[in-house]
Amino acid sequence: MTPQALNEILAAEHPAAAALLSPVGRRAAMPLGIPQQAAQAAGCALKATIGEITDGDGVPLALPSVARHFPDLDPKQAFRYAPQAGLTPLREAWARHLDAEAAAPRSLPVVTGGITHGLSLCAELFTSPTVPLLLPEPYWDNYETIFTMRLGTPIRGFPFYAGGGFNVKGLAAALAQVQGPQAVLLNFPANPTGYAPTAAEAQAITEVIAAAPGPLLVICDDAYHGLVFEDGVYAGSLFALLANAVDPARTLVCRVDGATKELVFFGGRVGFLTFSASGRAGEALAEKAAAVIRATVSSCSAPAQAAVLAALASPTLAAEQHQVRERLATRYRALRDALLANSLEPYPFNGGCFALVPVMGMDAEEARHRLIRDHGVGTITVPGANALRLAFCGIEAEDIPELVARVARVIG
Predict the structure, then answer these.
(1) How many CB atoms lie within 10 A of CB 55?
(2) pLDDT averaged over the chain?
(3) Which CATH number fits domain 317-411: 3.90.550.10, 3.90.1150.10, 3.30.420.10, 3.30.9.10?
(4) Nearest-10 crossing angle of helices 238-245, 199-211
(5) Less crowded by CB within 10 Å, the N or C end of the chain?
């Protein structure tokens, strides 16, 4: 469709999405280019369309030196260009994966080149120097790169914590300070804090956002989705809660998630972007996202998509995921107990892959370098917080007490 046609669909069926579109978002549409023309000729006996080297019957002439590393994947899926929005069977499989958790108004997910790429698509389609992004502080440093460095989107922070939990009142106050279009990004369990909201906090966040006047874009960064390790913590995504509660005349919700952590497939770079819009509005937003993908990376990795599709069909997948999560839960408990034993008080954490430990009496960067130089310990400092982020996801439980003991020698 033309940009105008897509924009008219959104104006009629999802006014918030239409109002939030950035200049790029308003212009975005799939042109009648090579992929579109090749798709229209899919039923032809003789296809002289797309520039893929095949046997003439659609099977890629993959070199054995490459193909032998993917023996169980369908060559037509793994070695041909994937569509701009991703392999259709994979998109449909991930949609079933989302619906199995909680049904909500949604588009068919668009495949992205990892979660960072999905966030970048949200930024390009909906934000600009005139649309601020609200973020609880401290936050993942790459948000500044994605939104501010590339697009000039101003970030307005508010304190992440209040009273030992998520700062719901701070979120409400931050939303009330902005007149006109704005965006808010919620990352749970959070990087760098490792905190996910309780069930009561999740409901309170939903009520605050549903009451916002808009136009409001809500981005759910679900990179660490499902990694919660304490009772009473909301284990689902806020996406379904929000998508079922908000008014499409005022609010659009985007969910960015993927195989990176959920399938422990970090190098695969397979993510998904889903919009809280169904029907023609969802299709319009998916086409706009696909158009931006076409204009940047053309399409995402086909072998990685084929691998994720095969994994989702595996009867042992759930058991495998459970095994990894139990291993992480053991490490989480080991870190929680070791911090307590060494009188180090982290910011509240209950999931994800991290704990954030405040540094008192010295600069956190100085502490980080001292740990490397004198104790053989690597940690991460976080902008806006004089603290060290400890990632327990890559350290066995039996090694965590020694890790914390060494940290305590420097900052305890």
Answers:
(1) 9
(2) 97
(3) 3.90.1150.10
(4) 40
(5) C
pLDDT digits (tens, 9 = 90+) for 183-215: 999 999 999 999 999 999 999 999 999 999 999
pLDDT value at residue 74: 95
Q: Helix 3-13 crosses helix 279-296 at what angle (to 10 degrees)?
A: 140
Q: Which residues lie below 8 Å from residue 330, measured CB to CB, with a gap of 6+?
A: 397
| Closest to 371 (Cα-Cα) out of 349, 395, 350, 390 | 390
CATH of region 3-29+84-312, choose from 3.40.640.10, 3.10.129.10, 3.40.50.720, 3.40.50.970: 3.40.640.10
Kindly tell me if the per-residue pLDDT of 57 is higher than 90: no
Backbone phi, then psi, for 217, in 5-degree steps? -100, 130
In this predicted structure, the answer to whether residue 158 has a pLDDT above a threshold of 90 is yes
Give the closest residue to 105 by CA, choosing from 278, 264, 271, 254.
278
Check: CB of residue 193 under 8 Å from CB of residue 160.
yes
What is the gyration radius of the CA atoms in the chain, in angstroms? 23
The predicted-structure confidence for 58-110, as pLDDT tens digits, reads as follows: 899 999 999 999 999 999 999 999 999 999 999 999 999 999 999 999 999 99
Instruction: Identify the three-state secondary structure at position 207.
Output: helix
Rounded Cα distance, 277 and 264, in Å: 29
Its pTM stands at 0.96
Which residues pair with residue 272 across a beta bridge? 111, 257
Those residues whose C-beta lies under 8 Å from the C-beta of residue 137, and which sit 6 or more positions away, are: 157, 158, 159, 160, 384, 385
* Cis omega (within 30 of 0) for bond into 315: no
Domain assignments of the chain as residue spans, ordered by start: 3-29+84-312, 31-68, 317-411
* Residues whose CB falls within 8 Å of the CB of residue 403, separated by 6 or more in sequence, listed in order: 338, 377, 390, 395
The secondary structure element, H or E, covering residue 279 is: helix 279-296
Q: Could you tell me where the beta strands, DSSP code E, fall in 259-352?
A: 271-275
